[in-house]
Design a protein that fits this description.
Elements (H helix, E strand, L loop, with lengths): L1 H14 L2 E3 L25 E4 L7 E5 L9 E8 L8 E6 L12 E8 L12 E4 L4 E3 L10 E6 L8 E5 L6 E14 L25 H32 L2
């Protein structure tokens, strides 16, 4: 695996692959290829490598999102050293209706979980096939979403894109959220959402009906009138008492 990465790194330099932690390709709400708002689309994602040894788990979280109603929460459960430090999750080009990812730009938004600041040392956005390419964010935030971007060369006949296991250090808990995983073809066309978008739910504020408002107004007037009457009677009694 190490040899493959070394050779891939050299080839990547020769192919002049574009790798960046920031991008101008940010999509609008609902435009991402995977929005991670519903669980159905996760059946299209596959795992590889040391996912069992690291206890890698993912689930749709409806409490945190950049767009839409949810995001993908990534967690791990590592209680002892892991021998083979490689693995992650990926989706095939065929699944997205593409022959490969030549010239494509892959993008995802990432938000770090509280307490996991030191456990993303192996996390990256990657593509694999004829060559291994990856983009590793320099830093992630627990407050702001970081956009990670990987652009494949026109002659990189890769068929997989995805993200790697965040860490191989001993750790148990939630590590990060992923949202708006987007594949843009070489001609600038974004691969349409795979059916997992759901608009963010907005809690409705119940407003009292017109009739109820009138009733409350009348009750308030009666109450004020009653209090005023009591005060007047009290004042009259005081005046009579001290004459």
């Amino acid at each position: 695996m190490k040899l493959k990465k070394i050779l891939s790194a050299a080839a990547a330099f020769a192919l002049a692959a574009g790798v960046s932690a920031f991008s101008a390709f940010a999509v609008e709400d609902g435009q991402a290829t995977y929005c991670f708002d519903k669980t159905g689309s996760m059946t299209e994602w596959q795992t590889y490598g040391s996912v069992e040894e690291t206890g890698l788990e993912t689930k749709i979280d409806s409490l945190v999102s950049k767009n839409g109603s949810g995001s993908l929460l990534v967690s791990e459960n590592i209680t002892s050293s892991v021998e083979k430090n490689f693995g992650g999750m990926y989706v095939d080009a065929e699944t997205l209706g593409l022959p490969n990812f030549k010239g494509c730009t892959i993008e995802m938004s990432v938000l770090l979980c509280e307490g996991a600041e030191a456990y993303t040392d192996s996390f990256s956005l990657f593509s694999d096939g004829i060559i291994w390419l990856e983009a590793m964010p320099e830093a992630l935030s627990t407050k702001d979403w970081t956009v990670v971007t990987l652009t494949l060369p026109e002659n990189a006949d890769n068929t997989r894109v995805g993200f790697t296991i965040p860490t191989y250090s001993e750790f148990t808990g939630d590590i990060l959220y992923i949202d708006d995983f987007t594949v843009t073809s070489a001609d600038g066309t974004v691969v349409a959402n795979m059916g997992d978008y759901e608009a963010k739910k907005i809690t409705e504020i119940k407003v009292a009906s017109k009739g109820a408002n009138i009733a409350l107004t009348i009750a308030a007037v009666v109450l004020i009138a009653g209090i005023a009457g009591i005060i007047v009677l009290f004042v009259v009694k005081l005046v009579k008492r001290y004459r």
